[in-house]
Specification:
The chain is an alpha/beta fold and 236 residues long. It has six helices and ten strands; from the N terminus they run E-E-E-H-E-E-H-E-H-H-H-E-H-E-E-E. The strands form two sheets. A six-stranded mixed sheet has the order 6-7-8-3-9-10. A four-stranded antiparallel sheet has the order 2-1-4-5, with helices on one face. Helix 3 runs parallel beside helix 5 and helix 5 packs parallel to helix 6. The longest helix has 15 residues.
């Protein structure tokens, strides 16, 4: 685990450019973006649809490759990793909360949460124990053996949060974590994220359109047309 006292940033994006398409259809989604995210931050990315938020977090997670520029995670340039090395790095250091939960329908809550540990080679029994403990921290102890179809949207989101945290990642990325939830369930998920995920040795990055949860941020970054907008003023 990288110590915050090391002086390294949790995430560092330098002159980040990302294009899609070729020839006349080529579109630039991110335009030379620079962004540092420190340990201990809960940074919220906001902006209109199509402004580049999802592309940015996909680059931070190593799911996309920059057209130019660089992304360093915990001091490691993601471009220096490839194949199994990149997969291993992501599985150890990144937790991801997906907008649509992405739970495996045939697995129970405990089994879903245990998946990241099993992928790291943790034994089945230990993985199940640690998964159950994380679910209990998120007040899901009564639902350990339920499959996703047997749970509400808010309960499924808590399972997704537990899965993202069970391997103790230093970077947690949440893509619209409250988009599928009503106001009460969304508030509860954010309170749980604040309680369980907030840590001086972890950075939490949240993409959201939900202005109701902005008070949970320590910093809000506004994007417009693939650029960071000072003070949230649109460039359009």
């Amino acid at each position: 685990m990288i110590s915050p006292e090391s002086g390294l940033k949790a995430v560092q994006c330098v002159d980040l450019v990302r294009d899609f398409g070729e020839g006349p259809a080529r579109t630039t989604v991110l335009h030379g973006l620079n962004l540092d995210i420190a340990f201990g931050e809960r940074l919220f990315l906001v902006g209109p649809s199509g402004c580049g938020k999802t592309t940015l977090i996909s680059l931070m997670a190593g799911l996309l490759i920059p057209t130019s520029g660089s992304v360093a995670l915990l001091g490691t340039d993601l471009a220096s990793l490839a194949g199994d090395r990149l997969v291993s790095f992501r599985s150890r250091h990144i937790g991801f909360v997906f907008q649509q939960f992405n739970l495996i329908p045939a697995l129970t809550a405990t089994e879903n949460v245990a998946v990241p540990l099993l992928l790291q080679g943790v034994g089945y029994r230990e993985a199940q124990t640690r998964a159950a403990q994380m679910l209990e921290r998120l007040e899901m102890g009564k639902h350990l053996h339920k499959q996703p179809v047997q749970m509400s949207g808010g309960q499924q989101q808590r399972v997704a949060v537990a899965r993202s945290l069970v391997h103790d990642p230093q970077v947690l990325i949440c893509d619209e974590p409250t988009a599928s939830l009503d106001a009460q369930a969304g508030q509860l998920v954010m309170e749980l994220l604040q309680e369980v995920a907030a840590s001086p040795s972890r950075a939490v990055i949240v993409v959201t359109h939900d202005n109701r949860i902005l008070p949970f941020a320590t910093r809000v970054v506004h994007l417009s047309d693939g650029r960071i907008v000072p003070d949230g003023h649109s460039s359009s």
